[in-house]
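Let's do one together. I've listed all components of the complex below, 1037 residues spread over three lines.
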Amino acid sequence: MFPQKRRTRLMAFAAAGSLLALTACSSGGGSAEANDDGEPSGEITVLTWRTDLVEDGTFDEYVETFKAKYPDVTDVKVEGLTDYEGEVKTRMNTDNYGDVLAIPGSVTPDQYGDFFEPLGSQEEIGAEYQWINDKSFEGQSYGIPVVGNVQGFVYNKRVWEEAGITEFPDTPEAFLEALQAIKDNGVEVAPLYTNYKDGWPLSQWDGWLGAVSADPDWKNKIVESDTPWTEDSDYGVVDGLIYDAVAQGLTEADPTTTNWEESKRLLGTGEVATMVLGSWAIPQMAAAAEAAGASGEDIAYAPTPVKVDGKFHSVAGGDYNLGINVNSDNKATARAWIDWFNHESGFSESQAGLSPIIDGPVPAALDSFVQEVELITLNPAPEGKESLFADIDTASGIVTTDPKFRQKSIDDARSGARTKQQIFDDLNAQWAEGRASAG
Amino acid sequence: MTTAPSGLSDPTTAAAQQSDAARTPRQPRGGAGRGTAWYRRLTPYYFLLIPVGLLLLLTFVPVLNMFWYSATDWDGLDKTKNVVGLDNYVEVFTDPDNVRVFYVSLYYFAASFLQMAIALYFATILSFRTRFRNMWKGILFFPYLINGVAIGLIFLNFLKPGGGIDTILMAAGLESLIQQWTGDPDIANFSLAGVSVWRYMGLNFVMFLGAIQSINPEIYEASDLDGANRWHQFRYIILPSIRPIIGLSLILAISGALSVFEVPFVMTGGANGTETFVIRTVWMAFNRNLVGLASAMAVVLLLIVLLVTWIQRKLIPEEEVDLT
Amino acid sequence: MIRTATTTAKYVSLVVASIVMLLPLGLILFGSFKTSQEFLSTGPMTLPADWGNIENYVTAFTRGNMLAAFGNTVFIFAMAIVGTILIGAATAYALDRFRFAGRTTVLALFLLATLVPGVTTQVATFQIINGLGLYDSRFALILIFMGTDIISIYIFLQFIRAIPKSLDEAAKIEGAGHLRIFFQIILPNLKPAIATVVIIKGIAIYNEFYLPFLYLPSKELRPISTTLFDFKGPYGSQWEIISAGVVITIIPILVLFLFLQRYIYNGFTSGATK
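Okay, and this is what the predicted structure of the assembly comes out as:
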């Protein structure tokens, strides 16, 4: 039933005496039938975080079109994972994590090569695609973003206007005041929704990092600092705002019962006024608004509420990057899927995102945003320090790629167990410790 | 229950053969006549080959590996494992997030007393003549058979703001008692432990009821003649006869409290201070790739369970637990 | 007087307990027949407007993969139960009917294994399953279910003692080999033990969540519990569909329970105390 696995199983039994060595043996099974550079053919498995698009049949259409172009491809199995980061990380303990998948945020740059097939040199890929630095290591690129996003927050224009707010807030304080005004004006659920329970939406706030200081090198500077969390640092503004909003009762009363799918409807109908998410969220929110009988026109997008030199800034960057499982035995087809997905699927347009292709079109929904806001692209880490941030992050025990530390500060903001300053102090202390042991 | 000696000593071959001669009826001398003596002697090993092989592969090798991993910084992927000695164990007991999972298990442990008390109450009253007895018994027991995921979802629906329990309190005019059942960090663990009581009470109940019903009815009759009332019967007949099974349930409660997983995982995902031992271990091992540290957590859990079981064996002699 | 009062108290407590047990289930049942709009606009205690609205069930079956999930659960159950029975009976046969070198060691190993909760060792078991190439295969679960079920072995040991040795002896005199004795004498006489094991094991497998969650990520291989868990994602805002999914998973176990009550109680009281 599982022919490609039989070989490994035999090897494993042979090695039963030294079971410790087993994981080493089991990699790279089935090389006999591997299709590394040939014509796309056979079957591949694609892992996606967009369970909604699997559910509504969009992916079935993609697969059909792809198969029409490459008739030798017999099947593309698409698996939608609800807790994408968590489930993929578990599967990455084995060889079995699909052929094409989005690289989870928690994989550190120095691990790319262990898990993913290099797609080409950074230069070569960079000539065709934008925002590829993030998933590159030592000159090799391992992933290509499916769509480019700008970062800020998505809000229900009708609710904001009814509360008398018509201008983008330009300081964190103004942002909180706006939320307060919305609350005073009466909003059914909350002015700001954290999506605490699902966890990952809390990591979306990281999109503001860099926009606060308008510094494309913020990440490269933070690895040199022992105090990333201060009153007006990138992290300080983000985590401070979350804390204040929660402490001032501007978020949902019971964060543990939040639900992502539900939140889309709440924003669409105006029961929630604001959520901090990348621009990729706009079409989903608009669709949910329509589905709930409200107007998709109400959904709008605003930049990070900080002005530097009189201007708003927004970090433009890749959404999830598609990579190829290094253990895949059908890399040619996997690669064809990635290229096809970026060039021909129409995915980025349908998501109202920026095309990952250099000089690709700007979608209508973001046209005005792009006029008013200066886009910045983060600079890559200097040679040899590509994984420094991740190393410190892991060693510090904070793990900024995991929403846990933010859930915890929300817990504390609600219970008052720690003040904002105490949280900053604790995070800074951990970070400094991480720097000492990783640097 | 079992005839295994408490020690693990392996008898010498000679001794075993001797006992073989003494205890097993001999093979018929001239009977089947196929196979040689050594072939016959190998028979039990053939039967045990697969069972013992699987036992070693899936229980003992993992346990040994776990001890080994726990002394390393292995991330589950690296080809090499660096020995770090007891660092992982230090981390298990010093990182407040790790220590907290022990604290969370106390809620479930405490709840199991409530659970046993309720189970004992219903087992006692249903052991006397009651109308619709089988129906009551079925209702009280059935939740135990339901899938843990389903239970988590059922109670998400029941406890969510504006859900079943809030509606009842509202209807009863008790709005002031409405809480964020999973949202308030002071209440969340009580709610989750309560769900656990709902789920497992039936098992305790049926076990207690079985034990009570195995008491010879003549004893009750005799006590009736002596003028004993229900309380006396409970105190002097029922309670002593089910003491061993209560002891056993208590022990199970401790290891049960430490291995809670499904209900909090489905309901809160371990957030808001409800993270349990298993949720944290899984997260560590597979999301953060700290296989070494996760193994140390698992070893600690294993040792606690072993310790508790050892205490049980000391306190409750084996033959007393045997009810059948 | 006192007698009536206590009797009343007794029935009141039974009724209250029954409500506590049944209400959460009932609300899920109500919800499963409501339309999406209805679920949001009516209270949880409100009865559904149309008890014939089975749309949520259709969605749960067709798009929620419930049918495949039942297939997988049945497949895993069937394979694992056959394996468990053969392994349990073989072990019991060898340990009870033979005296051989290492017997006490084997007994001690099994005894020791009862103390190791499976949930603790998965961190390391995962590496072994993966090494065997069984990750994301239903055989991973089957192997673990049949290879770590020490309780069943004890149940078989208990029952095999009750089978008179004279039966084996008689067969032996007629020239039967050990395999034939095992299959023709021992197994058929272990029927009550097998029934107990099938019930306890069946319910455990049906409800198991942790193992498929770890080992079976592929959608089309998932059994009931992880399939239901997955409802939380795409249907997170559609509680009426989640409710239908929950009801679907409960129905088979409810039907079995109603028909096999007595055996189930016996199974658990004997299984739990061994």
